[in-house]
Amino acid sequence: MISFLDLKKINEPYETAFQEKLKSVLEDGWYILGKEVTAFENNFANYCGVKHCIGVGNGLDALILIFKGYIQLGKLKKGDEVIVTANTYIASILAILQSDLVPVLVEPKLETYNIDPDSVSEKLTSKTKAILAVHLYGQLAEMDMINTIANQNNLLVIEDAAQAHGAISGFGKSGNLSDAAAFSFYPGKNLGALGDGGAVVTNDSELAKIIFSLRNYGSEKKYHNEFVGVNSRLDELQAAFLNLKLPNLDKDNQKRREVAKSYLTEIKNDKITLPFWDLTENHVFHLFVIRTENRDHLQQYLSDNGIQTMIHYPIPPHKQQAFSDWNILSFPVTEKIHNEVLSLPMSPVLTNDQVNFIIEVLNRY
Ligand SMILES: *Cc1c(COP(=O)(O)O)cnc(C)c1O
């Protein structure tokens, strides 16, 4: 069986180094917001090419803390509208709602699965105050267009970069293409911890200062609480593990692109629509997502041939039970995507033999 994502194999090469880190953190006796977190914050800020990185509990919290930080700064207020794609992972939308802001859903482009800048322009109102751009599946959203719209309309731009660590375009790198960006280090992400983890990155020093405080009970000085904060800190041990993995991120992303290149050039089947990619580093292939009309049939066929696939995602947010008010809304492009997408195995540890086998099985379908 070729597994969709072999996390054990991804982490295996680090086993000895992880154990040494565990030992040193243990011996250090400092388990929360210690030197590993600080080191990671510096390393990851450098990696993204930004001034500040704040390690937090997970990717969802990273997004929420950005919005709450801007509310604290007076740049956003309760009821402001935030434009976001209708076909994102639920976390993007939950973050907006949980910050007392109003998500305004817009259609993506079918080809890239990313937010359609024209749809953004159509949904602007006097209440629009921010755009949340998701780099879905690892491919950068059209940030030049989005930033132009934002500049013309005085909007904040926030990146949901949870799937796009290290993606680069001529305009910059994921994390430095907006006012502030959120990352997740959930184990399955391109840079994954051995548990939950997340980070905010930004060049905005005022925002960074507030988020450093908000993640830690709204307190900078122990037992002095300036803000109504939360407890959402990047774990010391996870930071230690991430410090070991970060130096290999670019190499891992390159490996993912090589797998993608094989899929794109060698899968030849009229029943399958391959994803768009301009062959640059603007895609880090967190996921390799194809489309096909009879998706469940193809998934069963692949499974019968020993190939595990996943669906990202089977139900669009506006059709979720949690958002019953939205269930009557219609987003045809989004719904088509959710009905047709299938994610092929994708990771830096897939072997050439595995990739060739997957291609061969798909070409026989
Ligand atoms: C994973 C993910 C998140 C949330 O990250 P967690 O660490 O699981 O909270 C947010 N947005 C997108 C697009 C994601 O893929």
Strand order of the largest sheet: 1-9-8-5-4-2-3
Strand content: 5-15%
Largest sheet: 7 strands, mixed
Q: Can you tell me the overall shape?
A: globular
State the low-pLDDT regions, or none. none
Tell me the radius of gyration.
20 Å
Termini separation: 18 Å
Total DSSP helices: 13
How many strand units?
A: 13
What share of residues is helical? Answer: 25-40%
Please, what is the average pLDDT?
97
Give me the strand/helix succession.
HHHEHEHEHEHEEEEEHEEHHEHHEH
Assembly form of the protein: single chain
The ligands bound in this entry are:
pyridoxal-5'-phosphate
Structural class: alpha/beta
Give a verbal description of the structure.
- Keywords: Aminotransferase, Pyridoxal phosphate, Transferase.
- This is Aminotransferase.
- Belongs to the DegT/DnrJ/EryC1 family.
- The protein is of the alpha/beta class and 365 residues long.
- The protein has helices at residues 7-11, 15-28, 35-48, 59-72, 90-98, 117-122, 143-153, 205-214, 236-245, 249-266, 295-304, 332-340, 352-363; strands at 52-56, 81-85, 102-106, 128-134, 156-160, 168-169, 172-173, 180-184, 198-202, 219-221, 224-225, 288-291, 341-344.
- Strand 10 and strand 11 form a beta hairpin.
- Helix 3 crosses helix 9 (236-245).
- The longest helix has 18 residues, at 249-266.
- It is globular.
- The two termini are 18 Å apart.
- The structure holds pyridoxal-5'-phosphate.
- Pyridoxal-5'-phosphate (PLP) binds at residues 58-60, 88-89, 91-92, 134, 160, 162-163, 184, 186, 196, 198.
